Amino acid sequence: MMKTPDELSTPSLLMDVTRVRRNAERMSARAVDNGVSLRPHVKTHKCVEVARIATEGHSGAVTASTIAEIEAFAAHGFKDFTYAVPIVPAKLPRIIRLLTSGTKVNLLTDDPDMPAELDKAARAAGVDFDVFLKVDCGYHRCGVEPGSKEAVQTVRGISDAAGLNFAGILTHAGHSYHGNSKEEIAEIAGAERDVMCEFAEELRSSGIPVPVISIGSTPTMTHVDHLEGIDEIRPGNYVFFDAFQATLGSCGFEDCAITVLASVVHRSFTNKKAIVDAGSIALSKDRGPVDIDGGCGYGRVLDLAGEDTGLRVGSLSQEHGEITVEAPALLDKLKVGTKVRILANHSCLTAAQFDHYEVMEGDSIVDRWEIHRGW
Ligand SMILES: Cc1ncc(COP(=O)(O)O)c(C=O)c1O
Known about the structure:
Blueprint lengths: L11 E5 H17 L3 E2 L9 H7 L7 E3 L2 H9 L4 E4 L8 H9 L3 E6 L4 H12 L3 E6 L14 H12 L3 E7 L11 H24 L7 E3 L2 H6 L8 E2 L9 H6 L9 E11 L4 E4 L3 H4 L15 E4 L5 E10 L2 E5 L3 H6 L5 E6 L2 H5 L4 E6 L2 E7 L5
Parallel strand pairs: 1-16, 2-9, 3-4, 4-5, 5-6, 6-7, 7-8, 8-9
Antiparallel strand pairs: 1-10, 10-11, 10-15, 11-14, 12-13, 12-15, 13-14, 16-17
The site of pyridoxal-5'-phosphate has 14 residues, from loops.
């Protein structure tokens, strides 16, 4: 028997699978039109079924943010991963187990000491590691400055090691999330591409082959004008989008695919507010696009049909979300037990709070898909 969202317990995580398919098709076409490989990031959804949709018509290669994701996806037939967090030696035994069972896992590093460590572990285990150099294209989270002494030294270390294969150079323009307009994001996207192409050229002209240039975030891959010189893109968030991306202009609000179903548990006409049972555990405490929309709060309150009520979740505690409701007529509708859907700021963080998606097609819940959490 198919259910409707109204029959679910709260909080639950709803996924509009029609929107997921449409978002995936758009990014897939963008990759094809630009002649680049698509290696979507699964960190957003951590879900095998969603990854199958996102990789349809492509090689099936994906990017992962945890080894737990890789292990779970490998158990479901995925064979080609990039583990997109710099590697540390203590994690190598799990990587080696994956490699020896026939799973390809590209690693990345930005540290000149790591090639020797990786080489030692590879030789001891009788495997080869494929290793990317993580480059900083302006985000300043991880990665080496392109062209710097550390960058060249690390690449040489990887290329010269018998147990390592230099996979190429990889970057992520996470600073695009702080762009205030489409033009600003397009500029960051152009720089992400150009910085990488110029650095690859520098390495190539000094005799080091660069097999792959890998870039990508959802804002930059949405707004970039061309991808000449790039081999691979790794966007992730675009399958779901969220209130943040819609406010940035990467999508419309009608493209956002996940919402948290919540119940009104309290209302007060005196204090002009309603409280729902989705707090910071269910929604995450990502502040969202506050630079563009100071009133975004922690999420948009939609009705069960998905229409924006105009209300916002203004504050959160662990299991409570507080919504200011100035209009008595609106508060009158929000009786205790009423269900609403909350479009949170950052879908990746929200999805990671749950064990499964309630898969929606139209108004019906048609399936339940697992979320592979952990590290
Ligand atoms: C290394 C790396 N690559 C790709 C992505 C995907 O970016 P987005 O979620 O904006 O699509 C991320 C996201 O954090 C990342 O850290």
